[in-house]
Amino acid sequence: xxxxxxxxxxxxxxxxxxxxxxxxxxxxxxxxxxxxxxxxxxxxxxxxxxxxxxxxxxxxxxxxxxxxxxxxxxxxxxxxxxxxxxxxxxxxxxxxxxxxxxxxxxxxxxxxxxxxxxxxxxxxxxxxxxxxxxxxxxxxxxxxxxxxxxxxxxxxxxxxxxxxxxxxx
Length: 169
Known about the structure:
Layout: E1 11-15, E2 24-30, E3 35-40, E4 45-51, E5 55-61, H1 70-80, H2 82-88, H3 90-102, H4 106-137
Antiparallel strand pairs: 1-2, 1-5, 2-3, 3-4
């Protein structure tokens, strides 16, 4: 599968390392094979050089001239609504969920574990009731004909009357 995210002017990248970690920035210029000039006007990332191994390239790209000034980058950023697109992406949602999990207290983790246990118990009971019903009516293993009881509940037979006393001779 060919690459779809190239290091190019206008590519939006997530900073993965350093003091600006977790912020979005746009690539303004490629300095050399390992460094780029970035600018993040909406995310308060100052114009600076950064190593490519500190960036994660996103699928978003904005159009502006080569080595454009910050105000031009800001205008292109706002016109493309990058902040809204980023917050709607699965990547941003996963990062947000990761931060939320990291912020859980011990008691919150305990409550979460108990809630999952309760949910799984309900799910298992529902699964086994459906499985038992389908095995009774013969649809579990692809059988075409109905089993003897069908899907009806089984009725317990009444106790037989006691046998008469010993036979007379």
